[in-house]
Amino acid sequence: MNNYKCTYCGTIGLVDGFIEDEGQGTHGYARWIEGALERGPFGGAKRMGRPRRQIEAYRCPQCGHLELFATAAV
């Protein structure tokens, strides 16, 4: 348990977890990529040269609200 506070209901002590990504070619977790979404010629997101950060997720045990944070570069 930690001392993070839910920004929705104010409960202290959020449960940590992660956002899973099961897409083809993924590493099993979602990442935050800096900059507006731009699509390539085949419809996928352009990612080359952009900083990427793993997403930490915390869930409020009282109301279920999720708090997401982008961690250090991956």
Overview of the structural elements:
It is built from no helices and 4 strands. A hairpin with a 6-residue loop joins β3 (about 50-60) and β4. The protein has one domain. The model has no long low-confidence stretch (mean pLDDT about 85). It has about 70 residues and is mainly beta. Strands 1, 2, 3 and 4 form a 4-stranded antiparallel beta sheet that branches. The radius of gyration is 15 Å and the shape is elongated.
Task: List the topology elements.
Elements: E1 15-17, E2 31-33, E3 52-59, E4 66-73
Antiparallel strand pairs: 1-3, 2-3, 3-4
Quick overview of this protein structure:
The protein has 74 residues and is mainly beta. It has no helices and 4 strands.
Strand content: 25-35%
- Secondary-structure element string: EEEE
Helix vs. strand class: mainly beta
Sheet with the most strands, sense and barrel status: 4 strands, antiparallel
Helix content: under 10%
Distance between the termini: 25 Å
How many β-strand stretches?
4
How many distinct folded domains?
A: 1
The tally of helices reads 0
Which oligomeric state applies? single chain
User: Which geometry do the CA atoms define?
Assistant: elongated
CA-atom Rg in angstroms: 15 Å
Report mean pLDDT, rounded to a whole number: 85
Given as residue ranges, the uncertain stretches (5+ residues, pLDDT < 50) are none
